[in-house]
Specification:
heterodimer; A: about 375 residues; alpha/beta; seven-stranded mixed β-sheet; three-stranded antiparallel β-sheet; about 15% strand; globular; B: about 90 residues; alpha+beta; five-stranded antiparallel β-sheet; about 20% helix
């Protein structure tokens, strides 16, 4: 099997990730619920994960990392905690439903930044979209479909000048690109993609200066007579039993990335992406979307082969060649409308640190054979 | 005779765990216990330290938000907890 679905979840993980999970399952109690050894070991393991994440993003305090079950929960919590029905929010056509649906559900007034054919956001639209009741720009850091990366520095400057917040969906980018905690007011991330951790982990990186409301509450092991926990990071987003098992493994994945170095990981993944895109760009009938290397990009290549539906193409890749990709709409409906692929979808190849040039070449050959057969 | 201890309370678990790590890092003795029901604090965990390490402990905990500190006196039936403010002589 050749695994090119790393944007869905990374499959090949460092050995220490599974070892940490296996150890945690049989050693950790319930953090914050008691003071005995296993309970305290769980609390310490979670704190260790917080500190490792904080160090990766250069957060000034580990308290600014709250853990959730993943990016989707993080984005839902961030939206519900900070926004009200009727608030105006600027977002983009690149968004995943994990951004769009929480905003739709809240009843926010949405306006959308468009993108060009390379997937680059048309940020000159931002001033025109600003309204008196605009509360934030809520957008992706990197497209999960075509791999384009948002210019967060420019968006951040706009937000500061306008006096609004920037809430960033870093599901595809943390662990893949250099991210610092001060890039946005709120950064939502997942643990099972670029950070090489297990599914069911993720979090919110944010300072204590935003007026967070408690929107998820329950047992915390503390102050049990209070009607809900204090609206302070990280506890404002944490209630119920923490996923200490997963977080122990997430810490191992994050530590691996810190040890190898985000630059080295990025260089390797970009070399693989470039090799693939250069390989497929001249294949007759293949249409590539957003293959732009003029700035930062993610290790993603999205394409279609003739008029073949993306699902059929992905099926051929899997059944004939054992190549795992993701077809369809990728939970990003507005992007597919923008690119005219709402019917056909796209076949997404997403590469990871553990892929090899030989696998890339096999992928290119498979695309070429399928294209030739049409 | 059982020894008295000082009990340091915290607003939340994050602070308590960070506090424990800071004391261990400073090579100071520290033990953990669940917050006694007679004490009200944000965090359900608290740290126990020997009274004679208070000043060193407060120095190690600088930068971490701590709550009230109590003097724990073990008795024949449970312990008593008397509020004890940082900086006060034992």
């Amino acid at each position: 099997m050749i695994y090119f679905d790393n944007s869905a979840t990374t499959l090949q993980k460092p050995g220490e990730v599974s070892r940490a999970a296996a150890w945690a399952v049989t050693h950790l109690g319930n953090a914050g619920r008691s003071f005995h050894g296993p309970a305290m070991d769980a609390a310490r393991a979670i704190q260790n994960a917080r500190e490792t994440l904080a160090a990766l993003v250069k957060a000034t305090d580990a308290r600014f990392v709250a853990f959730t079950s993943g990016a989707t929960e993080s984005l839902n919590l961030a939206a519900a905690s900070l926004l009200n029905p009727g608030d105006a929010v600027i977002t983009t056509v690149l968004e995943h439903n994990a951004v769009l649906r929480p905003l739709y559900r809240l009843g926010c007034e949405l306006s959308f930044v468009d993108c060009d054919d390379a997937g680059r956001l048309c940020l000159d639209m931002l001033p025109k979209l600003l309204r008196p009741n605009t509360r934030c720009v809520f957008c992706t850091h990197g497209s999960n479909v075509i791999g384009s990366v948002s210019n967060v520095a420019e968006i951040g400057n706009f937000c500061r000048a306008a006096g609004i917040s920037l809430i960033l969906d870093a599901a595809q980018t943390l662990g893949v690109l250099e991210i610092t905690a001060n890039m946005a007011d709120v950064i939502c991330f997942t643990g099972h993609k670029g950070l090489l951790g297990p599914q069911g982990t993720g979090g919110i990186i944010a300072g204590d200066d935003l007026p967070f409301r408690v929107v998820k509450t329950g047992g915390t092991g503390s102050d049990s007579f209070a009607p809900c926990q204090a609206p302070r990071m990280p506890g404002v987003f944490e209630a119920g039993t923490a996923n200490a098992h997963g977080l122990c493994a997430l810490e191992a994945g994050t530590a691996f990335i810190s040890r190898i170095g985000p630059d080295a990981i990025r260089q390797k993944e970009m070399a693989l992406t470039r090799r693939f895109l250069e390989g497929v760009e001249d294949i007759s009938g293949v249409r590539v979307y957003g293959a732009d290397f003029s700035g930062e990009r993610l290790p993603i290549a999205a394409l279609n082969i003739g008029e073949l539906s993306s699902e059929e193409a992905a099926l051929l890749l899997w059944e004939r060649y054992g190549i795992a990709t993701r077809p369809g709409i990728h939970c990003a409906p507005l992007l597919h409308r923008r690119f005219g692929t709402a019917g056909q979808g796209m076949v997404r190849f997403s590469f990871g640190y553990f892929n090899t040039p030989e696998e890339i070449d096999a992928g290119v050959r498979a695309v070429a054979v399928i294209a030739k057969g049409l | 005779m059982k020894e008295t201890e000082l009990v340091i309370t915290f607003d939340d678990t994050h602070d308590a765990i960070e506090g424990e790590a800071a004391l261990i890092s400073a090579k100071l003795p520290v033990k953990v216990m669940s917050l006694p029901s007679s004490i009200r604090a944000g965090c359900g965990l608290c740290l126990r330290i020997p009274p004679n390490t208070l000043n060193a402990a407060l120095a190690a905990l600088s930068g971490i938000r701590i709550g009230d500190i109590y003097l724990r006196t073990p008795g024949n039936v449970g312990s008593t907890y008397d509020c004890f403010r940082p900086g006060k002589e034992i």
